[in-house]
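The data are quoted verbatim for reference:
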Amino acid sequence: MRLNYMKVQPGSLQTLLQLEGYVKKSGLDLKLWELIKIRASQINGCAYCLDMHTKDARAMGETEQRLYLLNAWREAPFYTEAERAALALTEAVTKISEAGVPQELYEQVRKHFDEGEFVNLIMAINAINCWNRMAISTGMVPGEYQPAASK
């Protein structure tokens, strides 16, 4: 670890936790949220977050098969249409400088999520992207995390 941002600037952690708290209270399906966290973390290459969120997803009952194939979700038949829309949005927002969020994708997502849910998805995607960037920038090391249920 390069530095412990939580000790150096405790307010930074509190800010991230507030964003996380907003998403938790939003009503977004928690299993879907874990898929979003994992997919964004795959794109960003955040080993710490991948370790954490795959463990959390397993603890919530997510299958190994769906976790192993998440980076190839377009080709795998194990995801619902709503999950596919959310995963496509996750990729677009995570890589927003490449193509933005095209109108076609917005319409695809809106078939499954109302306006408020769309905003909550964006907040969830932004939250994990922020966590990824903090973890990668500060050199957080994966491996020690255990889900709350197994601590």
About this structure: The two ends are 23 Å apart (CA to CA). The chain has a mean pLDDT of 95.
